[in-house]
């Protein structure tokens, strides 16, 4: 007979993912065992396996959840008619997610190669869709780049290079808040684009 799911199954599963993101972010995926995760979650290993069949499943959930949140943030601004406004809103949304999910972001950047190939491919494809969104903004903003896919991709990667590593040095309680940092990124990026 199949085991029934508790009413709070999804909430408990998400709580495990959050705890795993923190644990993997602090010690790395390979430096964290199922026993470590069960202890940090306050549950037994067998109960942990009720929610996830493997450590890799949890890693995938951390990553896909983060990339899907970034995509949802991008979708929220897709209807803005002005490309500069779209980039500004997109950057603010991404920076808020990075600040509120710094462990998830760190795990995505540092441990993608720990996923099995098929799951890694799913994450890479989701990331590629984010790159395409920024590429579209660049084309709208700098129409002269429309046919120069290589240059557009380089600019897209430079944009993500500015924001993807902020989790390693940015302190939201410091002299510059997240909105100010996002504005700095947008200003620097847009002023560097050919018109």
Automatic annotation (TrEMBL):
Residues 10-70 form the HTH tetR-type domain. InterPro entries: Homeodomain-like_sf, HTH-type_TetR-like_transc_reg, HTH_TetR, KstR2_TetR_C, Tet_transcr_reg_TetR-rel_C_sf. SUPFAM superfamilies: Homeodomain-like, Tetracyclin repressor-like, C-terminal domain. One of its GO terms (molecular function) is DNA-binding transcription factor activity. Keywords: DNA-binding, Repressor, Transcription, Transcription regulation. Pfam families: TetR_C_24, TetR_N. Signal peptide: none annotated. Residues 33-52 bind DNA. PANTHER family: HTH-TYPE TRANSCRIPTIONAL REGULATOR RUTR, HTH-TYPE TRANSCRIPTIONAL REPRESSOR KSTR2. This is TetR family transcriptional regulator.
């Amino acid at each position: 007979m199949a085991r029934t799911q508790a009413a709070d199954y999804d909430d408990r599963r998400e709580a495990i993912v959050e705890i795993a993101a923190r644990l993997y972010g602090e010690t790395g995926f390979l430096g964290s065992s199922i026993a470590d995760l069960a202890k940090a979650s306050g549950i037994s290993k067998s109960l942990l396996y009720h929610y996830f069949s493997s450590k890799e499943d949890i890693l995938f959930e951390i990553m896909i959840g983060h990339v899907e949140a970034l995509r949802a943030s991008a979708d929220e601004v897709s209807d803005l008619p002005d490309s500069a406004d779209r980039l500004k809103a997109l950057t603010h949304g991404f920076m808020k997610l990075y600040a509120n999910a710094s462990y998830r972001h760190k795990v995505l950047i540092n441990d993608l190669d720990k996923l099995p190939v098929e799951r890694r491919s799913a994450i890479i494809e989701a990331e590629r869709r984010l790159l395409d969104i920024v590429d579209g903004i660049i084309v709208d903003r700098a129409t002269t780049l429309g046919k120069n896919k290589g240059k557009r991709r380089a600019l897209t990667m430079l944009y993500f290079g500015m924001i993807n590593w902020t989790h390693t040095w940015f302190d939201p309680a410091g002299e510059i808040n997240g909105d100010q940092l996002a504005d700095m990124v947008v200003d620097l990026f847009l002023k560097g684009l050919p018109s």
